[in-house]
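[DERIVE STRUCTURE TOKENS]
===
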Amino acid sequence: MEILKIEKFEFGSVPDFSLNERLDILRGFLKNGVCNVLFVKLDGSEREMKCTLNPSLLPEKVDKPKTVKLPRPEDNGVLGVYLPEEKTWRSFRINNVISIEVCDEA
């Protein structure tokens, strides 16, 4: 039996997702390796970011990011991710993600 392996997911190509469904899809990709995430920034411009949530790629000591205000528990819809090339943490709004694509599996 052949296992289907999805390398890219475009949110606009499928009917609306709930916030939790989007979060599950994003975490599924990000926990497996480094991904390119394309999203719309708050100023309306698009940004592509190489990031991950794979435990083997995260720093051993996880300090509170200095350059990003961590979302408070009541701030739903924001996902914090690690940028291995820059060795820093960033975040984006889950509902603003256009697509996610695997670029390097761990």
